[in-house]
Amino acid sequence: MLTARIGGKTQRERGARWLFGIAALLSLGGCRSLPQGAAIADEDEPKEMPSLPILKDDRAAIRAATRPPAISGGTLLALRSRGRVSVSDPDRSRIVVANIDAMRVEATLELEPFTEPGRAVEDGAGRLHVVLRGAGEIASFDPASPRALERRHVCETPRGIAYVAANDSLIVACEQGKLAEIPASGGAPVRVTAVDVDVRDVIASGEKLTLTRFRSAEVLDLDATRSVVNRRVLPSVLGVLSGIEEQVPFDASVAWRAVVEKDGSLVIAHQRGTRESIGVGGKHPSPDQPIADSPYAGSDLSGCGGVVHSAITILRPNGTTTTRELEGMTLPVDVATAADGSVAVAAAGVHDRFGAAPRRSLSVAVYRRASLESGVSGQPCVSPDVLEDAAASAVIGVAFDAGGRLVAQTREPATLRIYDLPQATQPPLLGGPRVLSLGGASAFDTGHELFHRDVGGGLACASCHPEGTEDGRVWKFSDVGLRRTQSLEVGIGPTAPYHWDGSLPDMVELTSEILTRRMRGPEESAERVQALADYVFGFSPRPPLRAADDAAVLRGKSLFESPGAGCIACHHGEKLGSNSNVDVGKGSSTQVPSLLAVGYRAPFMHDGCALTLRDRFDPLCGGSAHGATSNLDEPAILDLVAYLESL
Length: 647
Description:
Elements: E1 2-4, H1 11-27, E2 56-57, E3 76-78, E4 84-89, E5 94-99, E6 104-110, E7 117-122, E8 128-132, E9 137-142, E10 145-153, E11 158-164, E12 169-174, E13 178-183, E14 191-194, E15 199-205, E16 208-213, E17 218-222, E18 228-233, E19 237-240, E20 247-260, E21 266-274, E22 308-315, E23 321-325, E24 332-337, E25 343-347, E26 364-367, H2 369-373, E27 386-388, E28 395-400, E29 406-410, E30 415-419, E31 434-437, H3 446-452, H4 461-464, E32 474-477, E33 481-484, H5 507-518, E34 523-524, H6 526-537, H7 551-560, E35 581-582, E36 590-591, H8 634-645
Parallel strand pairs: 2-34
Antiparallel strand pairs: 1-27, 3-4, 4-5, 5-6, 7-8, 8-9, 9-10, 11-12, 12-13, 13-14, 15-16, 16-17, 17-18, 19-20, 20-21, 21-22, 22-23, 24-25, 25-26, 26-27, 28-29, 29-30, 30-31, 32-33, 35-36
Helix pairs in contact: 3-6, 7-8
């Protein structure tokens, strides 16, 4: 049900919440309990999380009939006419038009598998335009006659979409680094412009466009010629790491969703990762090892999380910025704004309530503008004014309809949850939401669920591997130094042993070390580990950034494969990698990664020393110790870069 927040959290209140949390853990069944002899500290004493024993999750593993795609979010659109919404359902390859006044489904447009409908926009004539991420198309139709569906190819990787009323056109942001402009009324693209790789959302304001980049969380302002005139990086702020009171620096990354308000303010739901050194310690937990020792996870019962936080950043037209960390939210995949300035956030990484989570895990929350504007970032994370804490279902879309009601989309089961939000003068408690079932087969898959859920400490696998790829971050570890997040999209099954140092021989060891010990999750049964492995191994690379028949690509390919360059000694086979460790002039031996889709994965190398593929050939990034390339001239190096971008 929806409950209202009253006030913020002082340190004394945090202690009170700690006491309440212990009682909650005791009341949630016998799965997790306080260790014998645990004492409740005086309220004024420093508070630490109790050590809780590791559970074993031996629930049956369920496999979906069709592999569900990784969660991307932003799949719900409230239409201008009150009470009607468009729902993109990537798990079931369909688009649903629903009437939440009448509580009925008006139309369901079935698509072929793996089309992955995503973002949607309504044009001036009331036609809907939906991005089909998996098909590289835009689906356009009139909700009044949805069967008359027009599909147009725009690019291989469409992501964001916006409508420009001035010329009745659609702007589509393509992850490969293109902007495609097409007439809203129909027809092929009339203009395609090259922009940065990894663009995500697009916002149109007159002749100006604003783009977000997904992994770097950058904001790009474009002029009428589609040239970048301003590049903004979301601010670094101080936050609490793993429940410890001292403040540490966090940098923005993974901008899941951006929307614009009427005043032109840009509201972005994103993640932030710590810049501090992470002490990993030993490996491989035993059943009696306390989960409070987990190095990645948050330990505060109601805190922002561990090494990754969820956040909202508001960029205003006057240049001022507000960033607030969000309590209890994992994978903030969608955001919506109301007419009164309220902001709703959807969390796809909700805890599935196996045992008792050591922190509150929210699926959807609403923040009043006054709450977001008050306080200081990191002191502490902001609590919701209105929260949904009844459902353990992942929420992948949120929207406010014309009447101010909040609509939340759950992926499994496929439903819409409709809330009438309380006013400040209303009582703090409301009844449950109205729930509209969208029907359709179950899309539950244990591997998918394990990959996306908050396992207990405010982290999901998808926190660092969003959409099955990587977060673009270089982490600092106390034992090994800098390590760039590795991508999962290359199909890592046959690339064991895992991690940069090859220290984890198989998925059993990887799950035990990462999911259980470092992230504070339960121990998973062999059947469930296999389900996770099957899901993770099923990711496939994004399409190349360059065509294989490009002249520079062909020259670079010939050079790459020549014995003198030394590239194929390590990068060979179907994945252009190897399962061996090599020292490439960085002072330690690391695994040879696959080069498939490498062009998307800046910064490059295991320590992120190369901001561009060209930088990879500089002496500071390995130089001649990383292949025999020191004698190559600049044109030859650029040909090699072109070939790498074609993989």
